[in-house]
Amino acid sequence: MKTNDVILQTTAKVVFFIIFLFSIHIFFTGHYAPGGGFVGGLLTTGAIVLLLLAFDLRTIQQILPFNFTIVTAIGLLLALGTAAGSIAFNVPFFTHAFDDFTLPLFGTTSLHTAMLFDSGVYLVVVGSAITIIQSIGGDD
Amino acid sequence: MNTFYSVCLVLVILSMLGLLYRVWKGPSTPDRLIALDAIGVMLISAIALISILFDTPFYIDAILLIAIMSFIGTVSFSKFIERGEIIERGSDR
Prior knowledge:
The complex is a heterodimer of chains A (140) and B (93). Chain A is mainly alpha-helical. Chain A is built from 5 helices and 2 strands, in the order H-H-H-H-E-E-H. Helix content of chain A is 64%, strand content 9%. In chain A, a hairpin with a 3-residue loop joins strand 1 and strand 2. In chain A, helix 2 (37-54) packs parallel to helix 5. Chain A is globular, with a radius of gyration of 18 Å. The relative contact order of chain A is 0.16. With 93 residues, chain B is an all-alpha fold. Helix content of chain B is 80%, strand content 0%. The mean pLDDT of chain B is 91. The A-B interface holds A 3, 8, 15, 19, 22, 26, 33-35, 39, 43, 46, 49-50, 52-53, 55-59, 133, 137-138, 140 and B 58, 61-62, 64-65, 68-69, 71-72, 75-76, 79, 82-83, 86-93.
């Protein structure tokens, strides 16, 4: 018998964007408030898991055509590149730097290289968690 | 005013104990599932009251996070009860 879950699918389509925006918020406020790359990555994983629950595995692989192990590798490279980039400026490994920039839309913004490291953590968490869930859910 | 919030916290914890009794006693699996979902809501209320009592706004993110995770957990459990599998593979085309 073919089941029809139109309520779950419509709810998932709306709630996905709320969870995704909340994960982006929690990722960007990690410097001044609770949160950061790890929780943001787990929340993005939760949003994708909600889509996986409402639809099936093959549909989500068509919507998000990434190989998530490569996403993990890109995250590790970003974190290692941020840590190793400080060597080029004759300061010890993992030294961070920040400065105030005047951006056209945001005004004066303080940008910190810890953000790049945090986005590396975000990509690693999203990639590894989605890889685990997809490989377990794909088994028969 | 702090006494009022403390009394509210005690009431929320008492209702959480009642829900825990339903989780322990519940005759069927959906009873336990509904009780766990309601425990999530009670946890949200308890964290909000604790955030008022400690006079800090930093617990607000945890409230939204528990709401989202409780929703996803309830949806996945009910899909497991209904179909027997949580994530479907999809048709080969």
